[in-house]
Amino acid sequence: MTEYIVSNIISTSLNSPQRIINKVYDKIGFNIIQDEELRHLVVSRICSPMSKKATVDYLRRHFKEEVSLQKIYRYLDKLYNTQQELVQEISVKHTKGLFGGNLGILFYDVTTLYFETTNKDELRESGFSKDGKNANSQVVLGLLVSRGGYPLSYSLFNGSQYEGYTMLPIVDDFVQRFNLGNDFVVIADSGLMSAKNVKLLRDGGYKYIIGARIKKESGRIMEKIIATERRCGVFNDIKYPDGDRLIVGYSDERAKKNAFDREQGVERLRKRFSKGTLTKADINKRGYNKFLSVSSGITVSIDEEKIKEDAIWDGLKGYKTNTDLSPEKVYEAYQNLWNVERSFRITKGTLDVRPMFHFTPRRIEAHVCICFVALKVYKELERLLKLSGCPYSVDETLKIAETIVTIEIARPENKDTITKTLCLTEEERAIAYLIDTDDWLEL
């Protein structure tokens, strides 16, 4: 049998990663878009994130698709405003299905996507960069995700946009588009929450849990915060005059990190002090410069008293909310904000959304749309792997799939051909269920 197969092989292919992703893509419902170019670009983005020029070669090798670079660019020009709402609707519908029709919690955060250029336009602008690329032009990406980190909606903003102004437009638009009413809680980091934003959330009838800036509270509230028992799992539930609550908790791990970070920062200040390089220009509130003081209008020194006062806050974290959830539930919900941060890490790292090399707004929009769909597919594959008890991550699974060979075999007796997929190792057998085929061949 083996000799017959080997002697009649016409061609071989290593397309199992694509077959896995195609299956998940269809399961989510993106196949209703009936856009093969979008499918190919999403598969390419997950399997081998590269420039669009390199994607042309990838499509030729793995899909036998003869696609020119100019055709891809023309497609991006067409995609930018045709499928964005639909891909978000599909993602929301699928995600709601995972949670019994009720999203319950919405997490929001922003990041920046930079370009390898300083050129600017109506979308690309310089601004505060989360990648440390302040000289480069960038765009601001706002992302709304569900429990588990499944992407729901996104928006792009001018690169100079203050991140605090991005959340309300996205949440308002999302709620109106999907008729959510107010049966959910918005969760966001303190960096996005000015007093104005909190008021807008409250006036809009939204429930929220947001990171609190506990060191900037009023004197009375501050006294109550400091009185919090320093024990993990014990919370201080403080009432604000406006009816909101401030939930304050303590963590040994956070306390150690706070102390370590401060020691590192102060040590750097001490080295500069000993070298005489600290000046009045360093007297500001940035970072650990807050521990500096000036005497007689001339001498800059390190204020040891300020360092001691800062240590009082070690391990404390506050969460402002207008919900009636228990302190434990508020804490638990906020901890899941890391799902948005992880979604950004996947998008920026695994899917290589940045740096971007597109320089027209419509192609930038299209590129981010493709990455949004790729992120949704990636997260769904991750969920399916966990659900089945598979020991491999998404990246490990796709790496194993690259070794699975599909062969086309000639049948001289009836001038026909058959296709068989070879399953040769235990690793390959562990992920075989992800590939739709009735033609497995074990040798």
From TrEMBL:
Instruction: List the Gene Ontology MF annotations in alphabetical order.
Output: DNA binding; transposase activity
BP GO annotations = DNA transposition
The superkingdom listed in its UniProt entry is Bacteria
Q: Which SUPFAM superfamilies match?
A: Ribonuclease H-like (SSF53098)
Q: Where are the transmembrane segments?
A: none
Q: Where is the Transposase IS4-like domain?
A: 105-375
Q: Which PANTHER family match?
A: PTHR34614, TRANSPOSASE IS4-LIKE DOMAIN-CONTAINING PROTEIN (PTHR34614:SF2)
Indicate what this protein is called per its UniProt record: Transposase
Source species of the chain:
Bacteroides caecimuris
Per the UniProt record, the lineage of the source organism begins with: Bacteria, Pseudomonadati, Bacteroidota, Bacteroidia, Bacteroidales
